[in-house]
Amino acid sequence: MSNERFELSEKDLEAIKISKALAADAVEKAGSGHPGTPISLAGVAYLLYQYEMANDPSDELWLGRDRFVLSAGHASLLQYVQLTLAGYGLEVSDLEELRQWGSLTPGHPEFHHTKGVETTTGPLGAGVSNAVGMAMAARREHGILDPDTPLGESIFDHYVYTVLGDGCLQEGVASEAASLAGTQQLGNLIAIYDDNDISIEGDTDISFTEDPSARFRAYGWQVLDVDWKAGGEYHEDYAALHAALEAARAETSRPSLIRLRTIIAWPSPNKQGSESSHGAKLGGDEVAGLKKNLGLDPEKSFDVPEEILTYTRERAAERARVAREAWDTRFEAWRAGNPTGAELLDRVRDERLPEGLADALPTWEPGDSLATRAASGKVLDALAPVLPELWGGSADLASSNNTSMTGEPSFLPESLAQKDGDGPFGRTIHFGIREHAMGGILNGISLNSITRAYGGTFLVFADYMRPAVRLAAIMEAPSTFVWTHDSIGVGEDGPTHQPIEHLASLRAIPGLDVVRPGDANETAAAWHEILKRHHTPAGLILSRQNLTVNATAEQAAEGVAKGAYVLAEAADSAGAEVAPELVLIATGSEVDVAVKAREILQGQGTPTRVVSAPCLEWFAEQDAAYREAVLPRDVVKVSVEAGIAMCWHQYVGDTGASVSIEHFGASAPGARLFEEYGFTGEHVAEVASQTLAAARA
Ligand SMILES: Cc1ncc(C[n+]2csc(CCOP(=O)(O)OP(=O)(O)O)c2C)c(N)n1
Ligand SMILES: [Mg+2]
Predict the structure, then answer these.
(1) ∠ at Cα 252 (247, 254), nearest 5°?
(2) Which end of the chain has fewer CB atoms within 10 angstroms, the N or the C?
(3) Is the CB of 128 within 6 Å of ligand 1?
(4) How far apart are the CA of 193 and the centre of ligand 2, in A?
(5) Which ranges of 31-96 does DSSP label H, i.e. alpha helix?
(6) Which helix (H) or strand (E) holds 633?
């Protein structure tokens, strides 16, 4: 730490005042928004963007940059104003368009939308889990690209900064993530907690009385206090904050929480310290009063003197130039010395899979029998040597989810290593029983990262992580959620563990690929297709119980990528393929049920086709001709899926039917439940015959 007293220049202080006024003006003009915290934390954000973080406004995806996550996403102006001042491409005119159609400044920060925004936030607490994921990703990236360099000394090391508020700290997801960050000893993670005692309903004492410092210390974090309220008069002490940030960076074996005591909306004359400044425009008089208190002209709006904008942009550019000069030189040296690593880096940054990946995938023979979760485990084992960027784990269900790549070390701090090889650069992630944080961490890893991650739990607990899944879809983050134990096939654990409405409810999320392979070969093909897609999250939904392999490896490789395909064609009595009179559509474990039903129906003289439909989203991408060829409009269709029928009507139409389950399951062996609830070849054949007869009547 330097002994020099940290001091901001007059122009810096002016820029901070202007930042506060801009936040007030933007909300005033929009008519809605959140001015309070962008006003009170303007200096914090200014410090981060102009003094503390490694960043390059001209290259917002610079590999060496520190990450910034505004977990308190409602305070989006905090970030927008600094992106404007630092020269990330936003202009003051964009701030004038806050929250308007088509603007670069939406209500909450959105990944892919505004340059410099690293993740979409707004659902409180989620950003903390993203930040933990980013901090973990940084360590893993170091591990695969520069393993011989000590932690902290590689060009791939960077810090992750997150700003969070009372709301984030109250949300469970942040607790889950912070706890894991402590265990993982993420020294590259720095959180600034805006301790302003205010949330929407007023004083946080009405619902939040714990000691967050004690809590974070118990998690294994370093907690640093910066109290701007100390000593009578409120004082935005940037030197104290800077010192805390230095101390946070210096602590390399623990994450740090800087507990910063602030007054919301300071120095707004009447609304400072009040929830009234949280989420509504301040009002003209109050904005004028704020400007007066800041020494700014109350008559002017969006007033950024050219001199100040030039100063902040040049300052940011010059800092970036200096940082880049040093970093780029080291990067070139790294490239020269690490051709394999460089090739890997180029490949993943180009979003290319290795040549011949398909050949590495395991195949099975029709008639083999194994659970798709087991097949998925074999696929991961096969991918391990050829796809170094892929890593992941489970929320304490690894042996059930088959998510550990055999023989790969665990991702753990040295002091917690359980077996040879485990360490900070390990590959298997132990998320603990923290599904929601796992989802957020996977997203943090997937965003602009050079690694790709998956995480497993039981499908029924997808509900525990749904907000993160939804955010993955909004962000087009290629997180892979491995959800096993996918139906009443779970059996004895009973209704709490048996998904019923989950497939339908996950399919309701736009932009999420819900992938439920019907056998082992389809599972390998499903993984391959998921990996080919770099901008879509996927849920890979797998069976607990053994499933007969019905698809050949070739059939699966070709068919799964199209979402649905003809697995078994209708035939006449001589066995020759003919046009179907009936189509059975099934997913996952019910594909085999449909295959059995087809045999019965064929025996009865009804030419019956089985369509396996592992991913309805991929099927929807196919052209109309293909879809019509697979599911002909004029043929009677019956869907078979061990879940609610919702979403199948659009495939089977008014003349068709769905064999489904519209109630919760029960505790009994899975095979018995399949019988009791009608998921047998006989019952499906019966329903299909009746449906066909009714359609013809
Ligand atoms: C998961 C979630 N629940 C509720 C909200 C609605 N909400 C937005 S901000 C906020 C209060 C946040 O308080 P705090 O973090 O202290 O922010 P401050 O008022 O200090 O800016 C709430 C409840 C949300 N954005 N996300
Ligand atoms: Mg607050």
Answers:
(1) 90
(2) C
(3) no
(4) 9
(5) 36-40, 42-47, 76-86, 92-96
(6) none
In the chain, the amino acid numbered 100 is: Q
Distances (CA, A) of 8 to 245, 257, 263, 518: 15, 23, 21, 63
Which two structure tokens, joined as six digits, stand for 524? 């390998």
Neighbours of 331 (CB within 10 A): 17
Strand ranges (E), 398-503 = 428-430, 452-458, 480-484
Cα separation of 430 and 411, whole Å? 7
The answer to whether the predicted template modeling score (pTM) of the entire model surpasses 0.90 is yes
Q: Residue with structure tokens 């308007």?
A: 100
The three-state (H, E, C) secondary structure of 194-233, written as one string: EECCEECCEEHHHCCCCCHHHHHHHHCCEEEEEECCCCCC
Mean of pLDDT values over 14-27: 98
Distance CA(664)–CA(499), nearest Å, equals 8
For 640, residues 6+ apart whose C-beta sits below 8 A from its C-beta are: 584, 585, 586, 590, 593, 594, 597, 658, 659, 679, 684
Nearest ligand to residue 468 Cα: 1
User: 3-state SS string over 390-421?
Assistant: EEEEECCCHHHHCCCCCCCCEECCHHHCCCCC
Of the pLDDT bands very low, low, confident and very high (cuts 50, 70, 90), residue 2 is low
Ligand nearest to the CA of 279: 1
Give residue-wise pLDDT tens across range 427-469: 999 999 999 999 999 999 999 789 999 999 999 999 999 999 9
Amino acid 324 reads R
pLDDT digits (tens, 9 = 90+) for 589-621: 999 999 999 999 999 999 999 999 999 999 999
Ligand 1 contacts CB of residue 198 (under 6 A): yes
DSSP string, 530-577: HHH-SS--EEEE--SSEEE--S-HHHHHHHGGGS-EEEE--B-TTS-B
Q: How far apart are CA 101 and CA 81, in angstroms?
A: 19
Q: How far is the CA of 40 from the centre of ligand 2 (A)?
A: 11
DSSP 614: S
How do strand 189-195 and strand 160-164 relate by DSSP bridges? parallel
